[in-house]
Peroxidase (Dioscorea cayennensis subsp. rotundata), 379 residues
Amino acid sequence: MASMLMCFLIFFGATLAAGFSDTQPKPVPGLSYTFYKSTCPELEWIIRTYLKKEFKKDIGLAAGLLRLHFHDCFVQGCDASVLLDGSASGPSEQDAPPNLTLRPAAFKAINDLRALIDKMCGVVVSCADVVAVAARDSVALTGGPHYKVPLGRRDGLTFATVNVTLADLPPPTSNVSFLINTLNKINLTVADLVTLSGGHTIGLAHCTSFTNRLYPTQDTNMDKTFAKNLKLTCPAANTTNSTVNDIRTPNTFDNKYYVNLVNKEGLFTSDQGLFSDFRTKALVALFASNKILFFEHFALSMVKMGQISVLTGSQGEIRTNCSARNSGSGLWSVVEDLLEQLLEFPCRPQSCTHWIPIHQVKSSSSSNLEHALHLSRFG
Ligand code: HEM
């Protein structure tokens, strides 16, 4: 009987998973898999080499970088707005409660990478792209799938308010309906929800993220021994301690998160609910029994998440410091707009003579701006 049920779950899960395309997703307009081929061919090597070295000292950084990308993309798209410090205009996304537990080491790693990349290539790579590649490499270097990410994102000029950030990042106490609705608003499916939640196969959580399931009464949907051990780490609801997200293999990116859920050893309400709700249970069972399938779908959902509301072309800017908007970028974009209006018939780069790489003139240039400036000089 139990094996029949498992067969049914796996069949139903396979049907849900079939909603995915099995080919490399087509990048959204403006992004490409070869974006920095000529301007920064060393980009992926620089990031991977740096992370390999840093992970030897602190493997937890991988989880921090993966979560940073998720928190960037869910709030006004993958535009590195989560990296912006607060300003005179108000507190930034970083001040919103869900972001208070983002790891400082992850922010530092992005800034360190920014400096290394600038040295090798000039300021041509966006902070949003650095975050996306760092998240991808964090998955691969902890044992997860290797996949390509489309690049060419631009950095946002603004950050979201604390209230918007709070509304866009679902809390760990969410039930499945709430999660489905939240993801639906940004065109992510039920299957994406189950798949991306698999990110909780690495990293840590503070007691306050799950003590709602321990106190005042214990969640009946939690394994009793698991709950007993969690209570040792979190003797009261507001303890500041933390514990691992995945009790089986805490630092390895694998499918054990789903095995935990099948065994009622999921940490958050939002995790364990995925194995109770009829819309998500089958896919959890399928991923628990098939790591390769989970990896394939995780790669696809990450590429999808990584393209949410991206800025491309002449939108936004390439920040020189990931924590702050470029100074004078407002004035620069006015100049850019004016030049674009003045120049009605820009030539294509390959048909222009005397073409010069404009990043030597202004490092945060967009391709339109390069055009406009080139024409104004040599037109
Ligand atoms: C679906 C809704 C999600 C909820 C409600 C949620 C919630 C949380 C919470 C509460 C924590 C622990 C924070 C703390 O107490 O310190 C956490 C950690 C983490 N989350 Fe999620 N998360 C979700 C989705 C995701 C996604 C989509 C990813 C990536 C694909 C992700 C990756 C991580 C990682 C890697 C950690 C560990 C971070 C670290 O150790 O620094 N989460 N999440």
User: Anything to note?
Assistant: Residues 60, 63-64, 66-67, 70, 101, 103, 170-172, 174, 179, 196-197, 199-200, 202-206, 209, 245, 268, 270 surround protoporphyrin IX containing FE (CB under 6 Å). The first strand starts at residue 204 and ends at 206. Strands lie at 204-206, 242-244. Confidence is low (pLDDT under 50) at residues 4-22, 331-379.
